């Protein structure tokens, strides 16, 4: 039996722009507007990441603590998470990506969204787009009453994303030798995932990925 998988990155691949900062602002505005005054601190944390004072994972944890809180009851979060997913679908999705998702579904592929963004808000977006599975960054309390500003395991990014894809496939009893994989991404950090695929697509690629795709002979697609 051959398992057909179509694995998509989310931010700037399926969407026009990143979703994480918009998520933080949406949640702060909905739950505690006073936290918007802390946005300059988010900028300082980004600078600290750029100069390698903190890791990408720690950056995400601290930003969430600032804009949402260290420990927030899931029941309070979820109505606003759902409205954010509605907003993303209405304003930030590439119609070319939607068409390709529909084509992959029609071709018999299982649709997988693999992203560094938090599962907390990715799953409602994925559900609206018709994805079958989500591989994403998890919170430490992903299945508990409270959502903590702490990542469980590793950030679903770069080689970490590929490790998480392989772990998901193992959990689903999908042997790589019996799988045919299409993969889509806009960013060179997903080169490990694209190398892993049978048919890699550089989707709306930034400069480094466009150059790598040309060198490797990967198909480039530019979705509106």
Automatic annotation (TrEMBL):
TM ranges: 32-51
Gene3D superfamilies, per the entry: HAD superfamily/HAD-like, SG protein - dephosphorylation function
The keyword Transmembrane helix is annotated on this UniProt entry: yes
Record-linked InterPro entries: HAD-like_SerB, HAD-like_sf, HAD_hydro_SerB1, HAD_sf
Any one GO molecular-function label of the UniProt entry: hydrolase activity
SUPFAM superfamilies referenced in this protein's UniProt entry, alphabetically: HAD-like
Keywords per UniProt: Hydrolase, Magnesium, Membrane, Metal-binding, Transmembrane, Transmembrane helix
Superkingdom of source: Bacteria
Entries under NCBIfam families matching the protein: HAD-SF-IB (TIGR01488), HAD-SF-IB-hyp1 (TIGR01490)
Protein name: HAD-IB family hydrolase
Organism the protein comes from: Sphingobium terrigena
Taxonomic lineage: Bacteria, Pseudomonadati, Pseudomonadota, Alphaproteobacteria, Sphingomonadales
